[in-house]
Structure prediction request, 278 residues.
Amino acid sequence: MILIADSGSTSTNWVLVEHGKSIQSLFTPGINPFYQTPEEIAGEIATLTLNVKPSSVKAIYFYGAGCVADKIEMVKHAIAQSFTQSQIYVESDLVAAARGLLQHEAGIACILGTGSNSCFYDGKNIVSNVSPLGFILGDEGSGAVLGKKFIADCLKNQLPEELKNKFLTTFGLTANDIINHVYRKPFPNRYLAQFTPFLAENMAEPAIYNLIFDSFTDFFVRNVMQYPNFEEYPVSFVGSIAYYFKDILEVVAFELGITLGEIKQSPLEGLVAFHSTL
Prediction:
């Protein structure tokens, strides 16, 4: 059997695969080596052994946010503490998006989840990537940035009073609560992204619709449209933000002359297919 993981900053989805078929799905909190110590990552991985017998897993393919070149060995070592007999492969979540969406075809693969990212994939490798820069400097269109922009508008009195009060009442928040979470507690990106379901429920509000529309426009202009000949390739997406705000994403793409490919909540189904053909 093999174990495949798709890990974002908020959650990690695992699937156990045997003979090319998914036989079990598992979930752990998000794993990101930029924000967590090796010990914290190893602790999260260890919880899997409650449901999976490590000796039965021949190989692990871990795709994760923050798994850049200088973090890969750290993540491998953390996984190996629980899965001592498994071959372990660690790649970025962007490689997961490219393989899961495009398999062996060329195109542009994007992530719109807690964070955002994009790449040009030639069918084998990622050959170009516009740096996402994280939710402070970049991550346009992501859940963290949508949440950041919405809360900033809320606290700066840029929203209709009724909408502002509805938001604060729904979550039982004060300005001090928000500032404390964003500036003094871990994982501010997760905190900000958690408010996107409220945006989805209130998309009929012009202030919310325009915020999402403008943020998706920023994503296309500042990322996708930087790839040479971008208009010649389908642009495909994974991630909860792309999936749940698909209608707005399609409108923005159409207005910019961009051809959309697949939009999936998770790349896991595609990754199972990809690894079954190797």
